[in-house]
Design brief:
4 helices; binds pyrroloquinoline quinone; mainly beta; Methanol Dehydrogenase, Chain A; binds calcium ion; four-stranded antiparallel β-sheet
Length: 580
């Protein structure tokens, strides 16, 4: 009798309560071995899966277990096709993945293959959104909250979908289409809020980061990355024609969060107009910076700017990887970021103080190096209005064409790095590039229309571009290994105890030894890979998964640097691997 009653009670208990995502779930993400519950796997962006069933000894037996075709390949605006850049989210045997147009797919993985449970199609405006996206039809993934899936669309919306049914519960227009604002980053959920970053740095936007209250669906705060007149930092825009109004500073890569100090860390992109830095005398805060924000108010705690008065298009949007190290005088609390300008930086994450930096690319010619005390480029002179780092290669109106290294994609672009906390190694996906920049004077007081770019020149790619994966020992700040690749790293990495995985743009998924970076395994997916691989478990079995589908900026803007990638065709496939 008693047993039957209990069963009845169980049957009536809210079925989903057990896997509702709360702040507690998110704070424990790193010790949740099976799942991948938030964009960077944990709120520190380690992208480290402790699963070791697939290891150094057996990775040679890694095979495709199942695949599933997704959609979103169709083009729109200036783009001939959509692509896949997303990090799938994994919870209790289900995957939540996106395509470039923001459709969300819930996939049941518990039967040994993938079965679509539902697809939420947000009906993104292909013509408009495709016309204001600088860099592809991209969507980097979802976040979970309660029993909802929170996602973004390229046309600037936040959408909450019922996790069980796939029904849209509510949506809100968060970025302004009339200002050429779009959204490509995955939302970051913390404390019943979803944090959104905006794209549009090449279209004269004024960047921001916004927090949405997931209970009321209203905005809690919005912090602009380019100060308004009179605000602190506005003195770093020294022109007389209000360049800051179109000053760029987009925030198009998902940030990280430190619960101990309730701080959000978020990267800021290029100042606008790109390349014509004489147009915007001054350091152009807070472009090319990492911002540390109070999560409840969006108030700035500190900032660190990497490339003041940027003439190179070195967006500093890279994720801040939060790492704690035991130190002599107490714990070191680091914030690491590998930037597009070719340098990897460690900052004190409580103060923003520069600790160390190193070049991670083979060729770097825009500066002689970093000041060991401040981390600023050695030639940086705060008294100058216009920074000329290395005069021979800095594009200016007088020196209109130059070859810069790294090229304007980097270095490292949005593609996420990974950190192995046991080995204390940080893995950086590298674009080994130089490109040619042509400077062109930008018009003052531009009357911009949606979809009309606002730049001061542009890049071309006369030199072959390759790639590498770099391993940095974060206890010493030294590069300890490098694995050279034929093509640039456009998808990012995941780390496991003994391995790292990375997708190549020519379709190869590779596994490297975590210490030596020696190549141990590869599989040719037959698709362009520009999404981050992930590792997770279903019913106790470890899998590696990656979304495969040519996307992003490369094939439109940078293909001349990689002729070998010209033949890659669009596609949209989920690959899942395991060992028997
Ligand atoms: O300043 C911006 O707003 C912005 C946005 C994006 C984006 O949202 O994808 C990219 C860039 N800039 C950019 O400079 C860039 O190189 C780039 C590459 C990619 C990509 O997905 O391959 N996106 C972007
Ligand atoms: Ca940019």
């Amino acid at each position: 009798m008693l047993a039957a009653t209990s069963a009845l009670v169980l049957a009536h208990a809210p079925a989903r309560a057990g896997n509702d995502v709360t702040q507690e779930t998110l704070l424990k993400a790193d010790s949740d071995t099976s799942n991948w519950i938030t964009y960077g796997r944990d709120l520190s962006a380690h992208r480290y899966s402790p699963l070791n069933q697939i290891n150094r000894a057996n990775v040679k037996n890694l095979k495709v277990t199942w695949t599933l075709q997704l959609g979103g390949v169709e083009g729109g605006g200036i783009w001939s096709h959509g692509g896949l850049e997303g990090t799938p989210i994994i919870q209790d045997g289900f995957m939540y993945a996106t395509d470039g147009w923001g459709s969300v797919y819930k996939i049941d993985m518990q039967k040994g293959h993938g079965e679509l449970v539902w697809k939420m199609d947000p009906k993104t405006d292909h013509d408009w959104a495709g016309a204001v996206a600088c860099c592809g039809v991209d969507n980097r993934g979802v976040a979970l909250w309660g029993d909802q899936v929170i996602s973004h669309t390229l046309d600037g919306r936040m959408i909450a979908t019922n996790k069980e049914t796939g029904e849209i519960l509510w949506q809100r227009q968060i970025a302004d289409p009339d200002k050429s604002e779009s959204i490509t980053a995955a939302p970051l959920v913390i404390k019943d809020m979803a944090i959104t970053g905006v794209a549009g740095g090449e279209y004269g936007v004024r960047g921001w980061i916004a927090a949405t209250d997931l209970n009321t669906h209203k905005e809690i705060w919005r912090t602009y990355t380019i100060p308004a007149k009179g605000e602190p930092g506005s003195e770093t825009w020294k022109d007389s024609y209000n360049a800051a109004a179109n000053g760029g500073g987009a925030t198009w890569v998902t940030g990280t969060y430190d619960p101990q100090t309730n701080t959000l860390f978020w990267g800021v992109g290029n100042p606008g107009p790109d390349w014509d830095h004489e147009f915007r005398p001054g350091d152009n805060l807070y472009s090319d910076s990492t911002l540390a924000l109070d999560a409840d108010t969006g108030k700035l705690k500190w900032h660190y700017q990497y490339t003041p008065n940027d003439a190179f298009d070195y967006d500093a949007v890279s994720e801040s990887v939060l790492v704690d190290l035991p130190g002599n005088g107490g714990k070191q609390r680091l914030s690491l970021a590998a930037q597009r300008n070719g340098f990897a930086y460690a900052l004190d994450r409580d103060t923003g103080k520069f600790l160390w930096g190193l070049p991670f690319v083979k060729q770097l010619n825009w500066t002689k190096g970093l000041d060991p005390n401040t981390g600023k480029p050695l030639e940086y002179d705060p008294k100058l209005d216009v920074q000329i780092y290395q005069a021979a290669v800095t594009p200016t109106r007088a020196n209109a064409v130059s070859l810069i290294c790294p090229g304007s994609m980097g270095g490292k672009n949005w593609t996420p790095s990974a950190y192995n906390p046991d080995l204390k190694l940080w893995y950086i996906p590298v674009i080994e590039s130089c490109n040619r920049i042509s400077n062109k004077e930008a018009p003052k007081n531009p009357k911009l229309k949606p979809g009309e770019g606002f730049t001061g020149g542009g890049p071309t790619d006369p030199v072959k571009i390759t790639g590498s994966i770099a391993a940095v020992d974060v206890t010493t700040g030294k590069l300890v290994a490098k694995h050279e690749t034929e093509f640039p790293q456009l998808g990012g990495v995941v780390a496991t105890p003994e391995l790292i995985f990375a997708g190549q743009p020519d379709g190869e998924l590779i596994a490297l030894d975590a210490k030596s970076l020696e190549k141990l395994w590869s599989f040719q997916t037959g698709a362009g890979l520009n999404a981050p691989p992930i590792s997770f478990a279903v019913n106790g079995k470890q899998y590696i998964a990656i979304l495969a589908g040519l996307g992003g900026a490369w094939d439109k803007w940078y293909i001349d640097g990689t002729p070998g990638l010209r033949k890659i065709q669009p596609g949209s496939t989920l690959y899942v691997f395991s060992v028997d």
